[in-house]
Amino acid sequence: MFSLTSLMFVAFTLFSIGIAGVISRKNIFVIYMSLELMLNAVNLMFVGLSRYFHTMDGQVIAMMIIAVSAAEAALFLSLVVLLYKRKGTLDADIFVKLSQKREHK
Length: 105
Known about the structure:
By secondary structure, the protein is mainly alpha-helical. 79% of the residues lie in helices and 0% in strands.
């Protein structure tokens, strides 16, 4: 069996890798996968704490998070396809260009 300390260490490590991926990458897919890694680290923490305290609350919350993230993945992938069709790239810097207002002359 795993101890709570080792489980929290693994969750913290996964969350840290996810943060590093979000900060250092420019590809939208890699950023999304890093966000999902962070979400799974939080789920691991919920399940570990739930097992430690002998309750099902953390496991139920983790299952709800997984269900919501499935719907969020469908929305994200549809937006990425639309962005790629319009701009021809998956570079995250394109969002800065999309948010700037046009100046009318």
